[in-house]
Amino acid sequence: MPVTVLLVDDEPLVRAGLRAVLEAQPDIEVVGEAADGAAVIPLVRQLRPDVVAMDVRMPLMDGIEATRAVLRTVAEPPKILVVTTFEDDEYVYEALRAGADGFLLKRARPAEIVHAVRLVAEGESLLFPASVRRLAVRYGDGARPAPTTPAHARLTEREAEVLRLMARGLSNAEIAARLVVGAETVKSHVSAVLAKLGARDRTQAVIAAYESGFMESG
Known about the structure:
The protein is an alpha/beta fold. The chain folds into 2 domains: 124 residues, 3-Layer(aba) Sandwich (Rossmann fold), CATH 3.40.50.2300; 66 residues, Winged helix-like DNA-binding domain superfamily/Winged helix DNA-binding domain (Arc Repressor Mutant, subunit A, Orthogonal Bundle). 50% of the residues lie in helices and 13% in strands. Strands 2-1-3-4-5 form a 5-stranded parallel beta sheet, with helices on both faces. Helix 4 links the parallel strand 4 and strand 5. The relative contact order is 0.12.
């Protein structure tokens, strides 16, 4: 089954460019478009996309509010990939904290766009781990602590080790190889980490790890 994508951006040329890049792939299908975040929820319910590629800045409802709305109101929400002009934008960080699964630069090369959609759809690796770290260091200053932090989550020693490897961007298979355990064991550890942190996915878990001081910021 192809990965289905909903494109949300107020610039028609951006949507057209993303559609052209994604639909050139046999395993990706663009199922719809919207010009503002306010239209996302009804389209998500109607089209059931696997991934929403969504601009972070839009006139009526931006990508941050649209992300919150989707996760709050849709029973089985899609993965959300924020599309942005600037990598170090605080809007991007707020969208990630709101529940977005990753972000993509509008100037990215076609291969990078395709890779980002596939990676976010799979959900077994962190997209751009170094950039997530920089955003957390720059904007996660502790004034807005994560709802549940690793310091209070009672992670086991092995779960803490898995979280550190997740923060470095390792996939489940790479973590399994590093720890010399089976892939299913790693999946169980990852699930336990997310549950204890109250995190939707790896991105939110890693943000919580940096904001709490669990991960070194340097």
